[in-house]
Amino acid sequence: MLKGLLLSGCLVSLWVVAQGVVFHVCAPQKAFASMLKWFAPTVPLYVVIFLLTPADLGVLSSRFVGVDWRLSLLNGLGVHVLLFLTAGLCYSHADRSITVRLLIELARAPQQRLTLDQMQAICGVEVLMQDRLDIMVRNGFLAIRDDRFVLTSKGWIGGGVGLLARSVLRMKAV
Amino acid sequence: MKGLVLAAVALVALVIGSAAALRVYGGNKEFKVLLGAFVGAVALYSAAFWLSPPDLGFIAPMWLEASPTVDFGNGLLFLALIFHGYWCFAYFSCLSPSMSVMVALRRRRGEGLTRSDALAIQGGDEPVNLIFLRRLPKLLDGGYVAEEAGAYRLLPRGGRIATLGSFLKRLINASVGV
Predict the structure, then answer these.
(1) Half-sphere exposure of A8 toward its Cβ, with a 13 Å CA cutoff?
(2) Number of domains composing chain A
(3) Is the pLDDT confidence value at B134 over 60?
């Protein structure tokens, strides 16, 4: 199984570097779509490299070789997809975290101090919601009709997932 | 293969256990519940891995990984990556302002939502909105900020997170302000 894990790890590392360059050069509006677009070719590439290389990759000891190659291939593919999803979530943490944004604003403030009113003006609910509503419209979850936000079919499914999750996982807003 | 099977069992236990624990948990530090569930799942996985037979009584010989260490690590990797996804899903689906808007719109059944309605969901018309009601006590308790003369001051611990956050935002070319 180590062969699949190593190949996946190498390809994901290369993709992370390439994606970083894409973010700086192209500054895509739809970040996740861009990540998906640049990641997608690595999946067939992984399969091709797996099939064309020897079981020990020329470096692995014999004790790490021996499991059915199909299991190794699928296992590596599973890790490959999970690493991509994890990278997408890490992007989201860095881009969307409200707490981190709050701390950055405090760090940039004179004497690193802000009153509650100042914090609410800089990154309070008005700023945040405008930002989020724009993103949801841009990503096709919401549409604007007669100055009101309405769900698209994509948003309808998303809201359904949220309703279901909230009925199972009880987490409080405050 | 053994690691994957046991990781799947541990994950099911983690999801059921954490969902049950969240129902009885009274505080607002749900991350402790989720982390506790993860630690429990890892302990369950580790104990089951080292105490059970290599084939678990049903795995065919051709599906057995030659190195137990690789098998164990592989299962643990799957467990950790899926737990991270579950953690993010739980927080996003239950607390995210974006999801709150979509859930509110589902409940309104096509009625739509104005911008001020969306603000009201997050307590925009309250003196201290939900964003701050939830986060400020945690930042104060955790030693990230201190309250002084009616203002909040960044402490060194919070400064380190801000520096890391700024670095990550630069890495992904995201705007630091809004």
Answers:
(1) 21
(2) 1
(3) yes
